[in-house]
Write a structure and sequence with these properties.
Number of domains: 2
Order of helices and strands: HEHHEHEEEHEEHHEHEHHEHEE
CATH topology of the largest domain: Phosphoribosyl-aminoimidazole Synthetase, Chain A, domain 2
Largest sheet: 6 strands, mixed
CATH superfamily of the largest domain: PurM-like C-terminal domain
Number of helices: 11
CATH class of the largest domain: Alpha Beta
Number of strands: 12
Strand content: 15-25%
CATH architecture of the largest domain: Alpha-Beta Complex
Length: about 350
Amino acid sequence: MAGIDYRQSGVDIDAGNEVVRRIKSLARGTYTPNVLSGVGSFGGLFRVDPSIKEPVLVASADGVGTKLKLAFMTGVHDTIGADLVNHCVNDILVQGATPLFFLDYLATGKLSPDVAEQIVTGVARACGENGCALLGGETAEMPGFYADGEYDVAGFIVGAVERARVIDGSSIAAGDVLIGLPSTGLHTNGYSLARRIVFEAMRLDAGTHVAELGSTVGAALMQTHRSYLRVVQPHLSSGVIKGMAHITGGGLTENTPRMLPAGVMAEIDLRSWTVPPLFNWLQRGGGIAPDEMRRAFNMGVGLVLAVGAADASAFVAATPGAWVLGRVAAGDDGVRYVE
C-alpha cells in the first residue's frame, strides 16, 4: 500500500513555494537601505538608522477583524493587506514613531497562491507608501482549521522615535484643543455590528447598490483604512502635538481618553463635523442608539490630536482635512459630547 504524503493530508508544499516566489519581488520593492537580509531567511535583519538620537523602538500587532468576511464575500483581498499595514502604522504613530519594518502572518485552510499574492500585494503597496520595509512574514496552511476559502491575517510593526520626542499625552492640560482628522469609512472596526445590520436586519448583499452611499454595499464597507503618517509626520519634530488617539475598536468614546492624563477629559463638539452618510445609513438600518454608534464606529473621525490653544489655528491650516473637534476640560469622565 502506498504511503500518505503531505499533500494528501492537506498541506501543499509546492503551493507554499509558489507563494514565497511571488512574495519575494513584492517584498524587495519595499526594502530601505537599512534592510540587511532577504526574503527566505529565518529572521529579518534591520539596522536602526544611526542618525536617530537615543532611539526608542515602538512595536504593535493587530488584525483586521471580521472585515475579512467582506473580503470573502467580494473576492477583494488586496485592500485587506493595506488595511493591515495602515492600522499598525497609525497605532505607533500616536506615540510619535515612524515605521521601520513590518511582518505579516497569513493562515488558511487551503493555500491559494493567487489570493495570497493579492493580500501581500496590498501589504507591499501600503508598506511602500509608508516608507516601511516588508521584512518578512509567515504563510501557514492549516487544513481543517479554517473553512474553505477563508483565512486570517495579522500584522506586526516596529517603528522608532527619539526618546525626547515620544508623544505620551502627559503634557495635555485643560484648555488644550482637540483636532480631528477624517476617516475613510469604517476602517477596520465595527464590522460585526455592521454585518448584522446590513446582511441580517436589512437583508442586503454585498453587490446591492445603495444610492445614498453612491456605491455598492461591498465597496462602501471595504474602503481602505487610512494611514495618517504623511499628514502628521511634518508636525512630529515641532513638539506641537501633545497627544494622539487612533479611533479603532471602542470608537471615539473609548479611544480618545487613552491619550489623556488623569484630571482631564475630552469635550467633543458634535456640531464640528458632518457624519459621513455610511454611518447614518447604518444607524437607521439597525435602529442603533447614538451612544452605541459612537462606541462601535469611528463616525468619520479616524485620528484625534491634542495641541495647545495657541497652536490650534496654525495646525488646522497646515493639515489637510483637519478641523477643531473639541477641547480638553478638567474632569475624569472620559468623553463628554456637546451640541
